[in-house]
Each structure stands twice: as C-alpha cells, then as structure tokens.
C-alpha cells in the first residue's frame, strides 16, 4: 500500500529531490501515526484489564512512537526548505536532529520501563491468561514487522537516517512484544509471573537501540568519514581525465541529500597549458555535480611529469616509504636541486594512530633514502582525508 501511495504522489519526480523526500517522509510518518495509535489503544486496554505492566508499557511505547512519527513528519517538512541566508547549506540535517531527539526519548522510556519492571519483579501480580491477549500481541508483532520492513526499505532507497531510526525503533518493539508474548504464554505453565522479567528485557532492548541511534546521529552531526564508495566514484571520474595524474586530500561534507560539498587536490603537468587545465577542471566539476550530486571544488597542484631527476627522486622516495610502512603515502612532490644538495619537498600521509613525532618520522625516512648526493627532506606530515 505504501509503495502505491508513494508512486502515485511522486510519479515522474527525481527520487533524490527534497520534495520527493518530503512526500515519502509524510506518507511514512502519517501511516506510522495511525498504526501506533491503534496498537496503543488495544495493548494499553488489554494490559489494564489483565494487570500486565509489560503489555501496558509496550502500549505506552507505541504511543511515544506515534509522537515520534508526528515529529518525523514535521522534520521532513523543514528538511525540504531550500537554503537561505542563515542556512546556506540547506536544512537537511533537521532529519538527523530529529533522529537524535527520538533516540533520547527512547532512552528515557527504556529507563522508566526498567524501573517499573524491577518493581513488578519485587511485587508480582496474579497471573491472568487470556487468549485475547495473545491475539493482540500477535497482531502487534505483525504490524511492527510491516513497519520495520517499509521504513528500512525506504531509508535505503532515499538515504534517510530518520526513516532508519524509525525502522530500528519498530524492530526493537517487535522483539520486545515477542518477549511479552512469551511471558504471557509461559507464565501460566510454570506458575511464575515472568511479566517483570520480560519487561526488563524489553527495556534493555529499547535502551540498547536508543544508544545505537544516539551514536549514529552524533557521528552524522559531528562529521564522520564519508562512504568509501563515494570516494572511489569521485576519484574514478577525476582520474579518467587525461589532464589529471593524481588525486589526494579529498574531503566530503555531507549536509544531507542534495547538499553534499566536496573538495579535492589534483596533480597536473606543470608544463601543460594553464587555460586548458582550467577548462578541464571546470568540466570535471560539472560532471561530478551531474553524476554524483556533489558541489566539487578542485585545487590543482602542478608537478613535473617528464623530468628525469624528479622521477628519479620520486621513485627513490616511493621505495623508501614501501620499506618503512605500506600504509604511508605521499603527494605534492617536487625537488629543488642545487650544487651541494637537493631538497625534496612533499606531503607525507601517515595513519592517525602513528605515535612517532614529526622529527622521528623524517629521521626514519631519511635513513631509508639511498643516494650519493646530500638530500634534505622538507616534509609536511599529514593524515588521511576521507581515505584519500
């Protein structure tokens, strides 16, 4: 049903456009509101009748899910707003902020449920088994399974962290309700009320998923390393141009779908015509925007490609680095040759976990440089940028 609604209201539109995402978010959110309110009414009602704290808590959880769906609908609306003077990078991170708020609510809910469940273990109620309870819980599991499936599918298709958060919330509810169902069926058989224990399990699941969502959304807000596939796709496009001989210092800032900004340093032949290179770079920036939906800024580094002496020292440096650590790389290589010594000027890229100081790194590198002439290393120590 949801796929039919989305196709009806987004027919012929770009699936990556903010307007399409707004429609998808609204449809998903409105359906979530109705389904969660339905589950709250039937579960809280039967939980009250049979005096089951875990069923009541599960129903209250569904009510908060309905509230989260309302917030998600509002969030998608604000994320659809175009960039303005105060927010030149758009409003797409509203989705991420909303995901973070949902995660905080889940955490508070889980802690509250844990407290009530412990009290239920200390003061258990009489066991009251009814088949209507089993039926309602089975219906709830089926509904939550459906909600997980469509939200996760849409989150992958449209790259939405908010829909993924809703999907993870649904799957935690599914497992939690399954635990309650297990308690309802087993308790009468063993004459021990497992309601409180299952409530603890439900609360642990909720808290765990809440912390996972908090971690994921915090990474998005702080700024995490981009998808390696994006880096590879960007480098592939750049390296296919015959004016480009190397790519490094790639940075990608993701503010949400349609608001991705990137920069890259490219090595070009120092002897080539600067106007021709500039034209190629302009074409590459437009190509990347069209194919990858990225606003790319390219910085060019002129290097000597066919100079025998430069190539000799470049090979010497490459072999030395390979002997020390294959995880090291270098770029922006050039030489300044003189009568008594030669300066090798370059950027050395080492992993973030490298413990040696800059002075120690240069000493190690120089010890592996086998040359008859006096060589001075003018090195800028760098760390990988987005795996570049």
UniProtKB/TrEMBL annotation:
Keywords, in A-Z order: Membrane, Transmembrane, Transmembrane helix, Transport
Topology of the protein relative to the lipid bilayer: Multi-pass membrane protein
Superkingdom of source: Bacteria
Residue ranges annotated for the Cation efflux protein transmembrane domain, each copy included: 30-222
Cellular compartment(s): Membrane
GO MF annotations in UniProt: monoatomic cation transmembrane transporter activity
InterPro entries: Cation_efflux, Cation_efflux_CTD, Cation_efflux_CTD_sf, Cation_efflux_TM, Cation_efflux_TMD_sf, CDF_Transporter
TM stretches of this protein: 23-42, 97-114, 129-149, 170-190, 196-214
Cellular component, GO annotation: membrane
Ranges for domain Cation efflux protein cytoplasmic: 226-302
SUPFAM superfamilies per UniProt: Cation efflux protein cytoplasmic domain-like (SSF160240), Cation efflux protein transmembrane domain-like (SSF161111)
Chief localisation class: membrane
Stored PANTHER family: MANGANESE EFFLUX SYSTEM PROTEIN MNES, MITOCHONDRIAL METAL TRANSPORTER 1-RELATED
Family: Belongs to the cation diffusion facilitator (CDF) transporter (TC 2.A.4) family.
NCBIfam families, sorted: CDF
Name assigned to this protein: Cation transporter
């Amino acid at each position: 049903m949801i796929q039919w609604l989305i196709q009806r209201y987004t027919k012929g539109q770009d699936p990556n456009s903010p307007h399409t995402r707004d429609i998808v978010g609204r449809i998903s959110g409105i359906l979530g509101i109705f389904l969660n309110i339905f589950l709250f009414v039937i579960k809280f009602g039967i939980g009250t009748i049979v005096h089951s704290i875990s069923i009541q808590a599960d129903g209250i959880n569904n009510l908060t899910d309905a509230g989260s769906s309302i917030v998600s609908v509002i969030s998608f609306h604000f994320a659809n707003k175009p960039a303005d003077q105060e927010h030149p990078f758009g409003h797409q991170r509203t989705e991420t902020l909303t995901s973070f708020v949902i995660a905080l609510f889940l955490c508070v809910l889980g802690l509250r449920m844990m407290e009530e469940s412990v009290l239920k273990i200390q003061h258990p109620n009489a066991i009251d088994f009814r088949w209507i309870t089993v039926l309602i819980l089975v219906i709830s599991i089926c509904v939550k399974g459906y909600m997980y499936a469509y939200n996760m599918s849409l989150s992958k298709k449209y790259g939405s962290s908010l829909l993924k958060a809703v999907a993870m919330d649904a799957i935690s509810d599914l497992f939690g309700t399954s635990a309650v169902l297990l308690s309802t069926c087993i308790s009468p058989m063993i004459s021990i009320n497992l309601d409180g224990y299952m409530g603890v399990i439900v609360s642990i699941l909720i808290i765990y998923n809440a912390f996972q969502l908090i971690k994921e959304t915090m990474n998005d807000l702080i700024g995490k390393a981009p998808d390696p596939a994006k880096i590879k796709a960007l480098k592939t496009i750049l390296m296919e141009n015959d004016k480009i001989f190397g790519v490094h210092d790639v940075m990608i800032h993701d503010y949400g779908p349609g608001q991705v900004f990137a920069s890259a340093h490219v090595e070009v032949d120092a002897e080539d015509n600067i106007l021709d290179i500039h034209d190629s770079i302009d074409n590459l920036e437009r190509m990347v925007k069209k194919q990858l939906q990225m606003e790319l800024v390219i910085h060019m580094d002129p290097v000597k490609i066919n100079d025998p002496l430069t190539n000799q020292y470049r090979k010497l440096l490459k072999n030395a680095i390979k002997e020390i650590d294959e995880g090291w790389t270098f770029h922006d290589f050039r030489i300044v040759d003189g009568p008594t010594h030669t300066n090798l000027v370059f950027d050395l890229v080492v992993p973030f976990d490298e413990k040696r100081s800059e002075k120690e790194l240069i000493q190690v590198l120089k010890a592996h440089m086998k040359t008859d002439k006096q060589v001075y290393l003018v090195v800028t120590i760098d760390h990988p940028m987005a795996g570049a």
